[in-house]
Design a protein that fits this description.
Elements lengths: L1 H4 L6 H31 L7 E4 H11 L1 H6 L3 E6 L4 E4 L1 H18 L5 E6 L3 E7 L27 H11 L3 E7 L4 E7 L1
Amino acid sequence: MDLLQQSEGLDEADLNRIQRSQQEIRRLSAMNQSLLLLAKIDNQQFAHNDSVNISELVNQLIDNYADYVAHRDITINRMIKEGPVRPMNRQLAEVLFSNLIKNAVRHGDAGSSIFVQVGSNSFIITNEGDPLPFPEDQLFRRFVRNQALPQSTGLGLALVKEIAGQYRMRVKYDYASSMRRHMFQVDF
């Protein structure tokens, strides 16, 4: 695709088709990686656990999204208690919390705020945005996604639920329509 895009004589319509194809290839690649990860989780192939400091991990992940957050003019307010440590596979812990943070930034209204709280027994993240475009009971199902976001695979929250279940954590979702706030909570 990259070589084709560099060909001479392409008009703008051809370049647009190539770009759409590249975007779809990236989406399918991400979907493949997520499905492989789900299969590994289902087969319990992540036996090695580390002592994961949830506060440090969440702060690091938020910092990783700083450019994207700034680009969307979103403010992140943190109330992060020091030191809840849980025995988890570090890679799975990163996927769990990264997916929740990324979703809050991606689906949050531009110019709004995100609130992140880490306590001794829970992680909570809230963001401002429109209600779900599908029934709430489908939120954690595989391939359920907002059709307005073509880059989404519909697997991020399914991964969150699987990983949380692997470590006997509970994930809850709520939407406060009066404030237009989505809230995800992970109880350790």
